[in-house]
Amino acid sequence: MLNVENIEAGYGDHTVLRGVSFDLQPGELLAIIGPNGSGKSTLIRALSGVLPLLAGSIRVDGRNISQIHDQDRARLIAVVPQARNLPSAFTAREVVALGRTPHLNWLGQLSQSDEVIIDEAMRQTNTAAFANSLANELSGGEQQRLLLARALVQQTPVLLMDEPTTHLDLQFQYGLMQHIHSLAHPPSAKQAARAVLIGLHDLNLAYAYADKVAMLVCGKITHFGSPEEVLQPGILSEIYNVPMVQLKDPNNGKVAFLPK
Known about the structure:
single chain, 260 residues, six-stranded mixed β-sheet, globular
């Protein structure tokens, strides 16, 4: 379980997050939504342990992440950042292999089982076709899928994702979200359910795939609950300062949110 208790975080003298608290269980996908500048990326940086806290605590399975070694933390929490230029000297497969670093033996060598895990992650994310291509020559969407594959091979109980659908076309957006949903809700009882937190701009993706939604505004969580509870036209209109309407398909019941 990911337990976040009354955390504050920021940069220099500027405090971004104020009194943020929530719990996230294995088998749950939590979408963090909110206007630009609300603190979504800062929250993910704080949860990953990259950004030190000013107050509060973050625990995974009862372990305070600020009090454990970086390698141990990397076995508990994996992060998918927004796509960016990747190292020019690395192939796509080498980038994914970096995710196995916390699990390597004392010689720092990949085992046969590590290789199998890498191959499977690249298959799941449709990145195997360009495994030998230089990572920095890939498109933004291909790099984004590569970063997901790198996080998957860490095999952590908690997965944090910062706008993973950025740079992806519609086909890959929904394909990726379906795969992310399956990480929290695996189809087989043999696979461990993960606690997945994802920062999103797209309200429709949040409604369709999240189990819980947290509305982050000016560094504070103003609403927290199911998609039906949080993603209401009145709440969205007030937060985004744009009149919003909810449309429902009479044939399949699917919901979409649009500016009025």
